[in-house]
Amino acid sequence: MNELPITEGISSLNKKIIAWNQIEETKEDLANKKIVFTNGCFDIIHRGHVEYLNRAKNLGDVLWLGLNSDASVSKLKGSNRPINEQFDRAIVLAGLSCIDFITIFPEETPIELLKKIKPDIHTKGGDYNPETLPETQIVRSFGGIVKILPFVEGKSTTNTLKKLERTLGH
């Protein structure tokens, strides 16, 4: 993965962003800590994201976020996305106190990242079903659980984009 550009005033936030080759070393420092993992595009941060991430953090000691790369966001959401580049998204998320670590991953799903981190809990939003989630089998294979957190009604990226389209008259 590319290193984040260090900009004056945000260098402390960069410390939360863990490259693939730093995962093992970081995990060694987390012995006896309950790791909660979540992932997503987090293209346009809104209140629903912040509430969700705080709920996830409250389930354990450490919240590790897998952030979809720009290329994977385009595959998942379409060629006009992401709105914000991966490094910008990572820095905004690193500014949230509930997030301890962020790793950018290139695939559409975080299966390879989950194999490296092996969290105790993997959380997803209320619009997911653990039985159809591609990650469920791998999480359960190392003794982890998948926990679905409630959807924050009316607070979604889709709703934000629809409101923006109405505002701009499209």
What descriptors fit this protein?
5-stranded parallel sheet; 170 residues; 37% helix; alpha/beta; 8 helices; globular
Provide the fold topology:
Elements lengths: L10 H4 L8 H6 L6 E6 L6 H11 L4 E7 L1 H8 L8 H9 L6 E5 L5 H7 L3 E5 L10 H6 L3 E5 L7 H12 L2
Parallel strand pairs: 1-2, 1-4, 2-3, 4-5
Concise account of the structure shown:
By secondary structure, the chain is of the alpha/beta class. It is built from eight helices and five strands, in the order H-H-E-H-E-H-H-E-H-E-H-E-H. Strand 1, helix 3 and strand 2 (62-68) form a beta-alpha-beta unit.
Structure report:
It is a single chain. This protein has 170 residues and is an alpha/beta fold. 37% of the residues lie in helices and 16% in strands. A 5-stranded parallel β-sheet has the order 3-2-1-4-5, with helices on both faces. Strand 1 (35-40), helix 3 (47-57) and strand 2 (62-68) form a beta-alpha-beta unit.
